[in-house]
Amino acid sequence: MGGVSNLVSSSCKKIIKPYFPTPTSLRCCKLSYLDQIVGRIYAPMAFFYPKRSDIIKPSVNISQHLQNSLSKVLTHYYPYAGKLNDNVSVDCNDSGVEFFTTKINCPMSEIVNNPYADKQDLVFPKGIACTPSYEGSLAVIQLSHFDCGGFAISACVTHKIGDAYTIGNFINDWATITRDPSSKILPGPQFNGASFFPPSNDLPNESNFIVPKSKECLSRSFDFSQSKLASLKSRVINSLPEVKNLTDTEIVSAFIYQRAMATKNAVVGSIQPSLLIQAANLRPPVPKSTMGNIGSFFSVQTTEENEIDLPSLVGKLRKAKEEYRQKYKHAKTNELLPITIGLYRDADEFLVNNCYDIYRFSSIKKFPLYDVDFGWGKPERVSLPSNCPVRNFFALVDNKARDGMEVIMYMKEQDILALDKDEELLEFASPST
């Protein structure tokens, strides 16, 4: 990051431990099968808060408040304060999580208004976001103070023991306790995923499941307003009336997939076999209180030119989702793992076949990220880092105006530069600022 790192003038670290010791009965938290096959990447998220003189009094020590509430929420999310035991379990030994406090010598607007610059990465703990090799605590927090009085709160949490749903609940519960220390976390999180997806000593070939890494990824963020989403939906509904209650996630995933394929095909000069993989939450049928990696996916394959028009893609995506739901609809607990392994096995040939372009979509739009209030107002911006080891990954979140959707994408440089100039994409989406 060159001279950008000089903007950080100070940094200190503390270890925050659970407020109450973890009971002996919970000290060994078994990893589920789905936990076992997930790489140990640190999933990052940052929340930017402007200076609020009407709420934050000069005597308020933001860092101390956050540390106190973090200690309390770790009582409920105790595995994050433990240590991984190979790929088998978490030793919930209350060793704690790392909490960094930094001073960044620039106004917050310099970062918030330049979302594609590497400056935004300063608010994440250095060298931890999206890395699979960090050997420190399983959750790492950073509080960054800006010259203007604004601040950012970021969290890098290991994906090994929690999916986006788990991480979102952890951050939201932490904010709730910070805002009101007397708050009760109900229902309490349960780290019992192994009872639904039993662990195994006979794991699949790692290369089939670990996402390929690329050092050439760039990030871009595009905003879909409510009116543009309505226009996109109308385009599909008019020619596909049988698809009822079209969701924002369905239309945006299909549209981004279509534009990514179209721009890539235009450069290459021919149709490239492609696969859209949509991550899906398995709560239900698994109880919503269950933490860990509790998810699966459904997919759409595209190999012919006539398959890449938008209504066709939406129809195939809806069909894949309905088939996916039927697989799990009446599944008993002991059937969840075999069904999920079957889906992985079916997709395996595409995941390891270099002839296919893989596009991965994950929607966390149901999490009201722009409502995460630690007691000092709602965030001005929610951000992910500028780097990611996953090529062709698209995160779908609420937009800043809270009336549409933002898509944060990570792609090869030439692919994302082509999308930047795609007139059809720019007709419905605008670069986020």
UniProtKB/TrEMBL annotation:
Keyword Transferase appears in the UniProt entry: yes
Keywords: Acyltransferase, Transferase
Gene3D superfamilies: Chloramphenicol acetyltransferase-like domain
Superkingdom of the organism of origin: Eukaryota
GO function term, MF aspect, one: acyltransferase activity
InterPro entries for this protein: CAT-like_dom_sf
Similarity-based family: Belongs to the plant acyltransferase family.
Protein's recorded name: Acylsugar acyltransferase 3
Originating species: Salpiglossis sinuata (painted tongue)
